């Protein structure tokens, strides 16, 4: 197990941990969360042995193999698949020794090393590496390209694949979803759920944490607090702990009054009704969750546009792409004030192409794109972070677009994005990716857009800033079109989805769970379609080969669903036993005597809690069984 006792960790003059305690047992999966700069990455360095404690102990089993996701790439000439295979260092050592033994014709060593190679699963290593790369969005052609040919985000995917390739007892992942799209994240979730070792990951994706981890380790005020469950459970538990604080109450009431005022004002207006409904949903969650974020340093809104047009944008018969290469055909899309649209689709299908065309960075290859007279676009994309002036401060960036505004007004506005005091005047060259993203959003929010085009806006943002962005988007009066791998953001800020796939943009009638199922079917179809054709004159072999590959793809999807269903059934059985014990205790007539009223009250509360959990588990179990049955039917057809 990992056992941290009375740990003090310091980097330079800053004390990150003091008297910290944490215990993780083998097989547990924990998310490590905390404010930027709190010491999460330093704790990872401590676990890897790169740092030593300033006081206290950090104990790990001496025979544990540790894998981690590196943040740098040091070999640009390696082919992508070879780079991933390098993650299995024991395998590479055996291969090197085998090569030397063959050169010296050492028959005994050759025989021994072939056995070791078999034990290390060396004969399937290449296939496993390619499977990892495919899951993370690499095509067969990309697997054979040099590492140096890829952009920074794709190199991070290679580092992630390399970490997953490494045999390990402890896996440390630092922001693994930052450079992934939604379909790659869903694949990674399934992979991590079946990972047998101990997992510790840093992430700002709450849905990803909920899906993967069973504990949350919260680093706050130089202490580590371990919470049972995923991020949503942590949020509820922390909210309960902080609910008595007057500061939490005041902030909660202010937010509640603001939302109620908006709902009362716009609920009856047809053009605003959908936005009012989203505020009502947010209000239902607000009372329970607001205290958990009382210490958030972020609070901002998008300034309301002076004028607006309807429609804001109207694209008809659109042919979109790059140069003479069309990516999307016959695109029809009209954006009106109040629209809340999320774009879904597999990697490379054309989501960014669509947003860039609407933003004016690309011209349509065909069709008609009409822009409203008063259209004001706020466009956010990752490449824009590189366009910030490295030698200018946040205040100077804002002064350039608002030269006549009072400096104090600009400083107050930047404070909502946590640029306060000296940080307002610090040059961008010293900023992290998250700070640059916050500044880019601040510049957009100031300019009073009436259409927001957002391409992965949450990359590099921490959980508190993501929550602030979600609230700001809920209050935004204009239209929103967003591509994001953050499912909580999509669920909280969009009313409809468009599916970008197979060269088309079409309405998607379903939610994100439906999209996950659509992806399973899509991958199975792709596996069958991409099956290599055999020589002419042997159609039977071709058909059988395609069927086997389709069936293999479905079996790969089947295993985690079966495991999930079995886990839910086991948990439900345990809960039924607990409920039976409680109800047996409630059957004792002596329990209803006045002297035992506290015990009775506790048992009734426990019964209510267990019945509520029972309903949740039964619903989840039935859904898992339905999904499993659907996949089994598809598998039977494929075989």
CATH topology of the largest domain: Rossmann fold
Total domain units: 4
**Record field, number of beta strands:** 18
Strand order of the largest sheet: 5-6-7-3-8-9
Going by CATH, the architecture of the largest domain would be: 3-Layer(aba) Sandwich
Protein name: Probable ATP-binding protein YheS
GO molecular function: ATP binding; ATP hydrolysis activity
Family: Belongs to the ABC transporter superfamily. ABCF family. YheS subfamily.
Keywords: ATP-binding, Coiled coil, Nucleotide-binding, Repeat
Characteristics:
639 residues, alpha/beta, Rossmann fold, 4 domains, 6-stranded mixed sheet, 18% strand, globular
How would you explain this protein's 3D organization?
It comes from Pseudomonas fluvialis. This is Probable ATP-binding protein YheS. The protein has 639 residues and is α/β, with parallel strands linked by helices. The chain folds into four domains: 2-236, Rossmann fold (3-Layer(aba) Sandwich), CATH 3.40.50.300; 243-293; 313-517, 3-Layer(aba) Sandwich (Rossmann fold); 539-638. Helices cover 48% and strands 18% of the residues. The chain contains 21 helices and 18 strands. It has helices at 40-47, 80-85, 89-103, 107-119, 125-135, 140-143, 152-165, 182-193, 206-212, 231-242, 246-266, 273-289, 351-359, 394-401, 407-415, 433-446, 463-475, 487-493, 512-529, 539-586, 597-638, and strands at 2-11, 14-24, 29-34, 55-59, 66-68, 170-174, 198-202, 215-220, 223-228, 313-322, 325-335, 340-344, 366-371, 377-380, 451-455, 479-483, 496-501, 504-508. It has a six-stranded mixed β-sheet with strand order 5-6-7-3-8-9, with helices on both faces. The chain has a six-stranded mixed β-sheet with strand order 14-15-16-12-17-18. A three-stranded antiparallel β-sheet has the order 2-1-4, with helices on one face. A hairpin with a 2-residue loop joins β10 (313-322) and β11. The longest helix has 48 residues, at 539-586. The model is unreliable at 533-542 (pLDDT under 50).
